[in-house]
Structure formats: structure tokens, C-alpha cells
Design brief:
InterPro entries: Nudix_hydrolase, NUDIX_hydrolase-like_dom_sf, NUDIX_hydrolase_CS, NUDIX_hydrolase_dom. This is 8-oxo-dGTP pyrophosphatase MutT, NUDIX family. One of its GO terms (molecular function) is hydrolase activity. This protein is of the alpha+beta class. It has two domains: about 60 residues, no CATH class; about 150 residues, Nucleoside Triphosphate Pyrophosphohydrolase. It has four helices and eleven strands; from the N terminus they run ββαββββββαβββαα. About 35% of the residues are buried.
């Protein structure tokens, strides 16, 4: 079987994401981790490596339902992948247990935005109606059709925080899955992908949420030891450290 048959763009994911290693380019299939795919395509393991984010260089890249993409989103791992980005051996992919779930893949981009001295971070928050608590996370969101990854990142940062960013550097790509039900009770098999960047702002000021009525309700500069950073997720410390190194702060 042609390996490309296993990695076709998912029709339920409107914006396919591609992985390149040398001259080989494959779409990231539903539930497939991009770093794992890069390794399988022969990318070398290099500590601290991160993929290059390319756009508009694969004019013949096929999209969902056979459509041709004018500005495909491509992660180039030709120079290597960081071994710590590989998924845990015990969970190499998603195991779907739901009966006939709807498959949905979403490609997004987020950033660890640091102050000039590297001691403060920009976070965004929204109110989780299910748990009735404030949920804090990294600024960013889904990529719109026709956008490149950097364009989406700049738009999301402005909409959610009112900040422009400078010197953005890609640091890693996160891939995760979730199985459950949608708000209307339909079984769903969800695959999330996000390109993470390290970035600074030309001027640190009070954040402003421009996308009123969207998912983000607030934004705030916080210290590195803020519980919303240190206690939210175990991977946050790794993300922050990699971002600081990428920006020459660590």
C-alpha cells in the first residue's frame, strides 16, 4: 500500500496540515501526531529542533474532496525533530471507542508571548459554563481558510489581547485527541493540532479583547510562577522553557 493512502486530508478537517521531510510530503491524518509522522518519514532526532513553518510552496497539494490548495500549511521537519515531542509509546494514536462518531480535525496556532525581560507571560481566559470556572490558556486559536499560520497567529493575538507580536519563532506542534459528545448529544472523535510559537511584543500594555462575543473573555500579563501557568498543565513548564530559549532568554 502507498503510505500516502494512510495520510489523506480528512474531509471533516477543512484545513489540512502537511508534514515534509526532504522531498516527501504527507497530510497529517486524523489522530496522527505530526512529530511521529516526521520520524516515520526519516527525519533525524535532534534535541531542541523545531519544524519550519512553510506556506504556499505546494501549489499542487490536494485538499479535502480532491480540491487543490493554493496556500497549504506545511511543517518542514527536514532538519530534525525533538525527541521529547514524540507521543508516549503507550498511546501512539487515538483509539476510537464510540459507535460511529463524527470525526473532526482542527488546525490551530498559539503562542507563548513573553515580556522583554522574559519574566511575564500573556494569558487569555474564558468562562467555562460547564464547570462554571475561569479557564486560562495561551493566546491563539483556529486557522481560517486561506490564512497562513503566521497570519492566523497575528490575527488571533490582536483579537484576543490587542497586542502585535514580533520575532515569532516556532517551537513545537501539539497534537491531542478527545472522545465524547457534542452539545447536541452526537458522538465525536476530535483531533486537535496546534503550532506553538515563542514571541515578544513591541510594547507591553494592558491587554484588550477586541473579539467581543468570542470565546475569549479576558487577557492578562502574569508572572512565570503564576498558578494559572504552573498548575494548569504539566507541559506548560516545558513550553515556557523552550520559548525562553528560542527567544534567547533562557
Amino acid at each position: 500500500m502507498d503510505p500516502s493512502d494512510l495520510h489523506r486530508p480528512d474531509p471533516t478537517g477543512p484545513i489540512p496540515l502537511y508534514v515534509r521531510v526532504g522531498e516527501v510530503v504527507l497530510a497529517v491524518g486524523h489522530g496522527v501526531d505530526p512529530t511521529w509522522l516526521a520520524r516515520e518519514l526519516g527525519a533525524p532526532a535532534v534535541e531542541g529542533a523545531s519544524p519550519q513553518v512553510l506556506a504556499a510552496d505546494l501549489v499542487e497539494a490536494p485538499g479535502p474532496e480532491g480540491a487543490q490548495l493554493e496556500r497549504p500549511l506545511v511543517l518542514d521537519y527536514s532538519e530534525g525533530f525533538d525527541p521529547q515531542d514524540l507521543p508516549a509509546p503507550s498511546s501512539p494514536g487515538m483509539v476510537v471507542e464510540l459507535e460511529e462518531p463524527v470525526r473532526r480535525q482542527r488546525v490551530a496556532t498559539h503562542a507563548v508571548v513573553l515580556s522583554d525581560d522574559g519574566q511575564r507571560l500573556l494569558l487569555t481566559g474564558f468562562f467555562d459554563t460547564y464547570t462554571e470556572t475561569d479557564f486560562w490558556t495561551w493566546p491563539g486559536g483556529g486557522i481560517d481558510p486561506g490564512e497562513t499560520v503566521p497570519e492566523a497567529l497575528e490575527r488571533e493575538l490582536w483579537e484576543e489581547t490587542g497586542h502585535e507580536i514580533t520575532g515569532a519563532v516556532p517551537v513545537t506542534v501539539l497534537s491531542w485527541g478527545a472522545r465524547g459528545t457534542t452539545g447536541d448529544g452526537q458522538a465525536e472523535d476530535y483531533h486537535g493540532l496546534s503550532v506553538f510559537w515563542a514571541a515578544r511584543v513591541p510594547e507591553e500594555r494592558e491587554p484588550v479583547v477586541h473579539d467581543v462575543g468570542g470565546s475569549t473573555s479576558s487577557a492578562e500579563w502574569v508572572g512565570l510562577d503564576d498558578p494559572r501557568v504552573t498548575e494548569r498543565h504539566a507541559d506548560n513548564a516545558v513550553l515556557v522553557e523552550r520559548a525562553r530559549r528560542a527567544l534567547g532568554l533562557g
